[in-house]
Structures are given as C-alpha cells and as structure tokens.
Automatic annotation (TrEMBL):
This is Cytidylate kinase. It is found in: Cytoplasm. ATP binds at G19, P20, S21, G22, S23, G24, K25, S26, S27. GO terms for biological process: pyrimidine nucleotide metabolic process. One of its GO terms (molecular function) is CMP kinase activity. One of its GO terms (cellular component) is cytoplasm. Keywords: ATP-binding, Cytoplasm, Kinase, Nucleotide-binding, Transferase. The keyword Cytoplasm applies. Pfam families: Cytidylate_kin. It comes from the Bacteria.
Length: 228
C-alpha cells in the first residue's frame, strides 16, 4: 500500500477531528480513514471503556476512578473496518455504547489523571501508526496532536445532533435521556476540553445540512493540501 506522508516533512499524515456529541466525528473519521488507507483512533471509546470499568466495579469519586482507570490495561483496534476495544482483557466493544455508559462517561473523562494517562497512550498509538491515522475526540486538535497536518472541528446544530442520536438508539432511550446525553454531556465535557470553538489553524465544518459523504469529501480535500 502507498504510504501517505506529508511531503514536506515525511511525517505520516495525522488527521485530527474534534467536535461535540453527535456531530458525526466517528462516522466521518472512519470514512476518511477507509478512503485514504489510514488507521483510525476513537479516543472517546477509551474514555467509555474507563466508564465501563468504573460501573463494573461500582467505583465513585475522582480518586477511586483515577486509581482504577490509570492502572487498567486498555487495548484498542485501529483498523477503521474492524473496531474493537478491551479493558483488562474484557471485550467491551458493544457494552461501551449502552446509554448507561453515555450517561456516566463525563464523570470519568473529567478526572485529570485519567486524561493524562489516556492522552499518553493516544500519543503512543499515533506515533506507532506508520501509515498515518485519523484521530477523533474532543481535544485532539488542541492537546493530543496539535501538530496534526489536518485539523478539523466538526459541528452541527443541537437539534440535528439530538435527532441523529435518537435515530441511532432507535427507541432505546427517551428524548429527554438523549438530550441529557448530548447537551448536558457537552456542557460537562467542555469544562476539560476546548471543543466549542476552533483553535487557530483549525477548519470548522458544519455538518447540519451536509450528508456524511460530503463531510468525508471536504476532509479528504483538506488532506490533499495539509499544513506542514
Ligand atoms: N453528516 C451527517 N448527516 C446525517 N447523519 C450523520 C452525519 N454524520 C453522522 N451522521 C449520523 O449521526 C449519528 C452520530 O454520528 P457519530 O459519527 O456517532 O457522531 P459522534 O462521533 O460525533 O458522536 C450516526 O448515526 C451517524 O450515522
Ligand atoms: N478526546 C476525548 C474524547 C472523548 N472524551 C469524552 C467526552 C465524551 O463524553 C466521552 C465519550 O466520547 P465519544 O466521542 O464516544 O462520545 P459521542 O460519540 O460524542 O457520544 O469521552 C474526551 O473527554 N476527550
């Protein structure tokens, strides 16, 4: 396979995508990775795995949460066509998408020692991606990989994001629960990651009235002329 590199520095291409819940980060990032032959890293899934462990062990309070999650062994797949995640050997690929985890994850993602440990691991995974990688989350363009050649903030109106999540959950959660998982979670998450406004050099894409394919096209076009 052809290696996608930044021609000026020969660094493997890193595409960083941040944005609020339901803006389309995961679907778009997977699509871009598949089209460009890059690896894919879902950093939100790592925080979700931490939240799964906290629920499984019935832990509470920042100290207990930090001790357990920082000591845990999180393994994550980076093939965009075959996503999986394990924590301490347990496969939690499906379990981390349950509404109870979506509801609880911000309490884990706002514990700073947890963030520090997961950010270190995310940087290692990026450094290991010799073919280049698309990384999505809340703090990728600003903290995890601010030197990424392509940096995107993907946004969409709250109504569109809530409607997308509701459709995805297909009745598994009420409108009030989905609204909490999207709006309240963004509010909590934005206390530790700056994803509500684009940092300098970050391209904003509003997906409210764009189809998934159009968003993927726009990001792939940016990748054709990356920032050095
Ligand atoms: N541009 C788009 N237009 C319409 N629906 C979209 C678009 N992008 C993503 N979706 C759908 O919205 C839902 C949430 O997308 P997802 O990629 O999980 O968002 P995020 O990772 O930002 O939370 C999914 O069901 C996905 O198929
Ligand atoms: N880089 C990241 C990625 C996710 N998070 C937090 C914020 C979210 O509430 C959770 C789960 O992220 P995820 O991207 O799976 O969430 P949604 O797809 O938007 O529902 O993790 C974070 O703090 N930093």
């Amino acid at each position: 396979m052809v290696t996608v590199t930044d021609v000026q520095t020969e660094r493997p291409l890193v595409v960083a995508i941040d944005g609020p819940s339901g803006s389309g980060k995961s679907s778009t990032a997977r699509g871009v990775a598949e089209r460009l032959g890059l690896a894919y890293l879902d950093t939100g899934a790592m925080y979700r795995a931490g939240a799964w462990l906290v629920a499984d062990q019935n832990l509470s309070g920042p100290q207990e949460i930090a001790e357990a999650v920082c000591a845990a062994d999180i393994e994550i797949g980076t093939d965009p066509g075959d996503f999986w995640i394990r924590i301490d050997g347990t496969d939690v690929t499906t379990a981390i998408r349950e509404p109870r985890i979506s509801q609880a994850v911000s309490a884990v993602a706002t514990v700073q020692p947890v963030r520090d440990a997961l950010i270190d691991q995310q940087r290692e995974l990026i450094a290991d991606a010799e073919r280049g990688i698309v990384v999505e989350g809340r703090d990728i363009t600003t903290v995890v990989a601010p030197d990424a050649q392509v940096r995107v903030l993907l946004v969409a109106d709250p109504q569109a994001r809530i409607a997308r999540r509701e459709a995805e959950l297909a009745g598994a959660a009420s409108t009030a629960e989905v609204t909490d998982q999207v709006i309240r979670r963004d509010r909590d998450d934005s206390t530790v990651a700056a994803f509500t406004e684009a940092a300098e050099g970050v391209t904003v894409i509003d997906s409210t009235h764009l189809g998934l394919a159009e968003v993927i096209d726009q990001i792939c076009s940016l990748a054709e002329k990356p920032t050095p």
